[in-house]
Amino acid sequence: MPHTNTFPTKLLSLAVIGTFGFSAYVQAEETVEETVTEKIITAPIVVTATRVEQNSFDLPVAIDVVESKDIQNGQLQMTLSESLIRVPGITAQNRNNQAQDPQISTRGFGSRSSFGVRGVRVYVDGIPLTMPDGQGQPGVVDLSAIKSIEVMRGPFSALYGNSSGGVIQMLTKDAPKTTEIGGTVMFGSYGTKRQILEAAGTAEKVEYMLNVSNFETDGFRDNNKGKKEQATAKLKFNISDDTKLTTLVNWFDQTAQDPLGLDRQRAFSKDSREDAIIAAKLAGTGVERSHAQVGFNLEHAFNENNKISLIPYVGNRRNAQTLTTTPLATVLTGPGGTAVNPCNTVRGTCARLSEIDREFYGADARWDNTGNIVDLPYTLSLGLTYGKSNDERKDTNILNNGFAVNVANRNEQNISKNFDQYIQGKLSLSPVVDIHAGARHTKVRLEVEDNLLTVNGDNSGSVEYQKTTPVIGAVWKATDTLNFYANFGKGFETPTFIESAFDDVTTGVASKPNLSLKASESRNYEIGAKAFVGDNTRVNLTVFKVKTDDEIVTELTNAGRSSFTNAGKTERKGIEFSVDSQFDNNISTYLAYTFLDAEFKDAFSSRSIASGVTTTSTVNAGNKIPGTYRNQIYGEIAWQYEPLGFKTALEARYNSKIYVDDRNTDTAPSYTVFNLRAGFEQRVANWHFKEYLRVENMFDKDYIGSVRINDSNRLFYETSPDRNYLLGLSASYKF
User: Fold this and answer.
1) Contacts by 269-273, CB closer than 8 A, 24 or more apart
2) How do residues 534-585 score in pLDDT, each as one tens digit?
3) pTM for the full model?
4) Under CATH, which number does the domain 9-734 receive?
C-alpha cells in the first residue's frame, strides 16, 4: 500500500510562524478541583459546557470529567475506550483492532458507525478532531499527554455544531514550574510493548511539554498486528498578563492489520474465536495511515469583563486501507479463476485499496463577555467557526480472483465545508436560579469533483445543509448540596462522506455518490439532579428523551460497500446515574449506570444480497437500534496504603445483549468482566518511580466486545481477549 512516513514540512513551518505570530492559549481548561460547602468530595471545574470556567455542579448539563489517574494509572493509554467506559451515557467499545477506531456513541448517537467516530464531536484543547461532515478520528492524540477528558451529553452538545449527540474534549497536560523528564515502558500479553518519553517545564515565560511514544502488538487474533508512533508538543508563551499563546502539534504514523469480524459459529467457539476470516489473510486487509496537525489559541483579555480567542488549525491525513470485497472467499484463486473473471466466493479472493489524502484547516473566533443586567450577573459568548476538509479519494481494485490487478474504481475530490455562528450565555435570575441558553446556525456543504469519467460518467455534484439549533436550560440550587435542572434543545446530524459515498451498491463500482440523503433532526429533553450526600459522596442523576426524524440508516451492504438511506422516526429514552464516594482508610467506590431504550418508531425497508440475489425486508416499528446496550454498569472499589505508596482497584463492567442489525435478527449476548489494577509509587529525592500491573478479564470470560452493524455477510462479531496482563514501569526526575 502506498504510504509515507514524512512529517509534512509545511505544518512545521506553520507551527513556527504561529508560535511567533499568534498569542497564547490560556488553559482555561484547567481541571482544578473546587469544593462545594467544603466537602471532601468535590465537583470539577469544566469549560466544555459553557466555554468558560465553571463548576460542573452548578450547570444544567450532564457532563463528567475523567481525571488523569483514571486515564493513565494501570492503563495502556492507547484508546479512549479505556477511560470512557466509566462515564454514564457513553458506550465506548475497544475493538481490539488497531486498524479501526474504538466504537464510541452517546445515548445511541454514533452507534451505527463502521469507521471512525460519528455523531459525537471530539476536541483537544478546543481544536476539533471532527471534520465538517461529522466524521472524527480520536486516535490523533496520545493519551499519555492528556490530563483530563470532559464528556458532555444532551441538548447543549448541539452548540458545537452538526452531528453533536455529545462532545468529548481532551485537555493536554500543563507544564510544571521546574523541568521534569521521564520515561515509561510497558509489556503485556500478545507481544504488546509501549514506550513513552516525556519532557516538560518552564523557561522564563515559556511553558513546554514534549511527548513521544511507540506502541506495537501482535494482537490476540490472527492478522491483528499493529504498530503506532506518536508525538505531541505544546508550547505556551506568556507574552503578557493579558496575552498568551499556545501552539499544539500532534503527529502519528501507524500500520495495522485488520482481522475483520467473525460469524456466529466461529465467534462462539473457543477453538476459532481468535481467528481472522480466511479472506482477510489472503487479501492482506489492514491500514497504513499518518496524521499531522498544528493548532494555536490566541487569547487576549481587554479587561476583567471582555476577552477574545482565536483558534486556527491546519493538518494533513493520509489513509490507505486494504479491504476484501469477497469476505466469504476461502481460497486465493478458485477453479477457472482468471484476472478478468467477475469476482465471487467460488472463484477466489478479491480486494480493493481505498486511499484518502486529506488537507484540512479551520478556525474558531470567540468573544467572551461578563457583566450585570439590572444587577443580574450574566456571561455571554459569541463565536464564528469555519472548517474545510479536502479529500483526494482513490479506490482501486488490487486483487481479482487472487491475481494482482490495478483497476481504478474512483478518483475524486470530496470537499466538506462548514460555516457556523453561535451565541451562548447564562443569566442568574437570583442566587438560586440560573438560566442557560444558546443557539447555533450551521451550514454544511458536501461537494464531489469527479476525476474519473470513464467508469460511469461524471458524478460531480454538491449538496448543502442548513439548520439553526436552539437550546435552553435552567438550574435550581435548592440547597448548597442539591441542584435540580432541566433543558431542551434541537439537534442536527448531517450525512458524512462515508454515508454519502454510494447511492446503490448493487451496481458495484458503477454506484454513484449519494447526495440525496437528508440530515436527521432531533428534539432533546433532559431533567436531572446533582447532590452531595454527607461529606463523602457525590450523586448525579439524569433522565432524557430524544425524538429524531429522518434517522440515517444502512440501506444495503454489498462487496464491502454500503449505501445509506433515511428511515422515519426514532426515539431514545433513558437514565444516567453515577455515585462517587470516599470513605475512611483511603477506600473509595464509584458506580455508573446507564439505561437506554433506543428504537425505530416507523417501519422502513432494507435490502440484503446473498448469492447475487437481492432481497427486500421490512424493519418493523419497535425494533431496537442496533449497537445500543439497554443496560450498562461500571463499578470500582479502590484502596491505597500511603506508607508503602500502594494503590489497587477492582473494576467490574456489565453490558446487556446488543442487536447486530436493524431487523434484530441476531444479538451478541450480555457479559460481565472483572479487571484488577495495582501498583506502587515512590519518591526518592528528585526521583519519582511507579510500578504497576493490570489484569484484564480476570476470570477468562469469552465475550463479544463489539459488533459490526448490518454486516451483509453476517460477520457481525468482534471477539475480546481472554485473560491478559499489562506490566508498566516509569521513572521521572525533577530538576
Assistant:
1) 270/702, 273/702, 273/719
2) 999 999 999 999 999 999 998 888 777 888 999 999 999 999 999 999 999 9
3) 0.92
4) 2.40.170.20
